[in-house]
Specification:
By secondary structure, this protein is α/β, with parallel strands linked by helices. The protein has eight helices and nine strands. The strands form two sheets. Strands 1, 2, 3, 4, 5, 6 and 8 form a seven-stranded mixed beta sheet that branches. α3 packs parallel to α6 and α5 packs antiparallel against α6.
């Protein structure tokens, strides 16, 4: 995970600590008693993802679904788990929350996608987000060499993220449409956003199933304040505003 991704992930995890029922430093991965589900609780973690792969490989009857409750983690780990799910054509069931890199890369990669009535499915940015330059300059104000390294990290992330979304057939813009100027103006410093089922389909996320025949995350997500964004056809323009509202010092 590059340095800026680490900063953004850490900030979101702190902001979301009271937003969902799960918040654990060490993820837990188990196989359901009937063997049909791999259950993942916690932040995205390399050893936990390796455990997911091991459980699947060792199962005589292969699990068909990942049940996940996660605030996310690094983009590289999200894409690694997303690639595994897509390759094995697993379904996904959100059990509480799927946020940040979980929403970006894990949820869209699954075959059938299951959401409970108040499950949180929340985005807050990605490689195309418009405030990277502002973040770089604020974080490393007096360190031009580190600024250049961070810009190269972002450039590589843009390339790998674009390739990932092409593999799974989903628009990369889903990660950043909530960061368009009109949304920034309407919801200043909001930590993230979600989409309607109709807009998720416009991005290319299909086969969404609602366990309770409805999905109403706004009834659960009261603090911090997330908002419903909508489909966009182009990435947001660069902004000098740091969207997370964080302060940095060298």
């Amino acid at each position: 995970m590059n340095t800026l991704q680490g900063i953004m992930c850490s900030l979101l995890l702190v902001a979301l600590a009271g937003c969902a029922s799960m918040h654990s430093n060490k993820p837990i991965v188990t196989l359901s008693p009937n063997g049909s589900d791999i259950v993942y609780n916690g932040e995205l973690d390399a050893s936990a993802i390796a455990q997911v792969q091991t459980i699947y490989a060792q199962a005589t009857v292969k699990p068909t679904r990942l049940v996940i409750n996660s605030h996310g983690g690094s983009s590289n780990l999200g894409m690694a788990l997303g690639d595994f799910i897509h390759d094995k054509q697993l379904d996904i069931r959100v059990n509480g929350a799927c946020m940040s890199s979980c929403a970006n890369y894990v949820f869209p990669a699954a075959r059938n996608k299951y959401l409970g009535e108040r499950d949180a499915l929340l985005w807050h940015g990605g490689a195309l987000q418009p405030d990277w330059e502002a973040l770089i300059k604020a974080k490393w104000k007096h360190n031009p060499a580190q600024q250049d390294r961070a810009r190269e990290d972002i450039r590589q992330w843009v390339i790998s993220e674009k390739a990932f979304f092409e593999r799974i057939g989903v628009s990369q813009l889903i990660t950043v449409c909530g960061q368009q100027p009109e949304w920034i103006k309407a919801y200043p410093q909001a930590p993230g956003f979600y989409y309607s089922p109709e807009d998720m389909q416009r991005f290319g996320i299909h086969d969404i199933q609602f366990i309770a025949n409805r999905w109403a995350p706004e009834e659960t997500i009261t603090y911090p304040k997330f908002f419903k964004a909508s489909f966009c056809s182009a990435p947001p323009p660069p902004t000098d505003e740091i969207l997370c509202g964080c302060k940095f010092s060298d």
